[in-house]
# Entry
Amino acid sequence: MRPELKSDAYVFCTVGDDYVFDNKIVRCFFKEEEGITLILSKQDADHLNLKYTYVAAWITLKVHSSLAAIGFTAAFSSALSNHGISCNVVAAFYHDHIFVPYLDATKAMRVLQSLSIQE
# Structure
């Protein structure tokens, strides 16, 4: 898996369809019926006065995973769950990106590293 922890704190914000955002600071966005979800650093969200309720650590699994892989997400999300850690997953073309509660980052890294050793 080769988990890699990014150093910043990240947040999920929601904005209306008419909100114009800067691609250079928004790390990910997803358009839903209710609005657009933005994922960006907490520092940038604070600078833009965007509201959020969840502060996360971002862990990238550096192994190249297939979008058609079966059971990969279940394996790491179950391992995290077994240790009381929630996770939000963004599956991108090359890697899976896991957002865990910021205060659980170190514990989540230990869980993922131990899972990597077992493979």
Q: What stands out?
A: Residues 3-118 form a domain with the VC0802-like fold (CATH 3.30.2130.10). The radius of gyration is 15 Å. The longest strand covers residues 3-15.
